[in-house]
Write a structure and sequence with these properties.
Blueprint: H1 13-22, H2 38-47, H3 55-64, E1 74-75, E2 84-88, E3 102-108, H4 116-134, E4 139-142, E5 159-163, E6 168-174, E7 179-185, H5 186-194, E8 207-210, H6 230-251, E9 255-261, E10 270-276, E11 280-284, H7 292-295, E12 318-323, H8 330-343, E13 352-354, E14 360-361, E15 364-367
Antiparallel strand pairs: 1-2, 2-3, 3-7, 4-5, 4-8, 5-6, 6-7, 8-15, 9-10, 9-13, 10-11, 11-12, 14-15
Helix pairs in contact: 1-3, 2-4, 4-6, 6-8
Biased composition (Basic residues): 1-11
Region (Disordered): 1-33
């Protein structure tokens, strides 16, 4: 059902004619969008005819939206949250397009203070507004270090949601000053994602979730990669844990991830639990031979908030409350997990597995590409 498709491109000749007749280079926008809600803007963008994203068609699109066209990537919108940006096809995009001259129109829709908690809350508020308008997104995920076409990601987190269409897609993503609403051709970003599916370390980062419904017909998935060294495992875990509570808060999607490990003579017992909603909490099922303090763990008494996911103070025995958005020390947490796994008898990171339960996040089926671990 879910296979990549090549959309048929519409001819854009008529759009070029319209654009040349109506554009006013460098002029102020004809449509005042200062007070337009995010939902109203999203409806207008979703209904827009992009004409295949050729140069002429994109110029005409901007004019029809009532915004000011110029020869720079900046699009003058008149919105209080800032002007929009076009991303032209360049050396990082050209392999993934089929006639498009641009791969996105990004519009800042809410400004927030730069701290992780404020950014996550701003994203969540826009997410709720769009969900009330369009229903649940087709796709949800986190880019990690790698976003399409090597676009920079935000240090606090890189969540995104997509309302996918056959030709064009609406995306909500974390931007430099707050959440951005992005109109983009569907194929290029998806083609980029699929082609990252090679087996080099960290070939794909973050995680990707989709709803198995009609909006995702034709979707294809990359092959992923597998972690082979403890050093690689530490970096992957550090990246994942550092931003996780900000991203689960932004997406309004709590996460529970058990991690199992193959140990000679013991099968593959559960080793760790990762629980993250508004706070990141970790637990280990290590036996009495593992000293908590020596590896960075505490107890239920020392971390009382961990009683929410694990009410029995003795099971699991080892606990950490790593805090909310912007608080986790991902590197330290990753080193603790790796050291504990090795102390429990796990010989190689290739013996670690993510519990299959973690792959079901509400209506979404999720693959944690960035960790490089198979599902149990």
């Amino acid at each position: 059902m879910f296979q990549l498709r090549n959309s048929r491109r519409r001819s854009a000749g008529s759009y070029g004619k319209i654009g040349r007749m109506t554009e006013q280079r460098g002029s102020a926008p004809q449509h005042s969008a200062t007070d337009e809600t995010v939902a109203a803007l999203a409806v207008r963008l979703r209904a827009a005819d992009t004409g295949g994203w050729t140069s002429d068609a994109t110029r005409a699109l901007v004019v029809r939206l009532g915004w000011g066209w110029s020869d720079s990537p900046t699009v003058v919108t008149g919105r209080s949250t800032g002007d929009a940006r076009l991303r032209p096809v360049g050396k990082y995009e050209e392999r993934y397009v089929a006639g498009e001259a641009y791969v996105e129109l990004a519009v800042p829709v809410r400004q927030a203070d730069p701290d992780a908690a404020s950014q996550a809350e701003a994203f969540r508020m826009v997410k709720d507004e769009l969900t009330a308008t369009f229903g649940e997104a087709s796709i949800m995920g986190v880019h990690g270090r790698l976003a399409p076409f090597l676009r920079p990601v935000q240090s606090w987190g890189s969540p995104y949601l997509r309302w996918r269409g056959e030709s064009d897609t609406i995306e909500l993503r974390a931007g430099p000053t707050g959440p951005e609403l992005v109109l983009q051709p569907t194929d290029p970003a998806e083609n980029w994602f699929v082609r990252q599916g090679h087996d080099d370390d960290h070939a794909i980062t973050g995680f990707f979730g989709f709803r198995p419904d009609g909006s995702n017909g034709g979707l294809t998935f990359p092959g992923g990669w597998r972690v082979r060294s403890w050093e690689t495992m530490t970096r992957a875990l550090a990246d994942f844990l550092t931003t996780l509570p900000a991203e689960t808060t932004a997406l309004r999607t709590p996460m529970w991830m058990p991690i199992y490990g193959r140990i000679e003579g013991k099968g593959a017992p559960i080793l760790f639990d990762i629980d993250c909603g508004d706070r990141l909490m970790l637990a280990s099922f290590a036996d009495e031979s593992v000293n908590p303090a020596s590896l960075g763990w505490g107890t239920a008494f020392e971390h009382p908030t961990t009683g929410r996911p694990w009410p029995d103070p003795d099971s699991p025995r080892l606990r950490i409350d790593a805090g909310g958005p912007g608080r986790p020390d991902g590197q330290a947490l990753a080193e603790t997990i790796v050291a504990t796994a090795r102390a429990m008898g796990v010989v190689s990171p290739e013996d670690l597995l993510i519990g299959n339960e973690a792959g079901d996040l509400g209506a979404y089926r999720v693959t944690f590409y960035g960790l490089g671990l198979p599902m149990a």
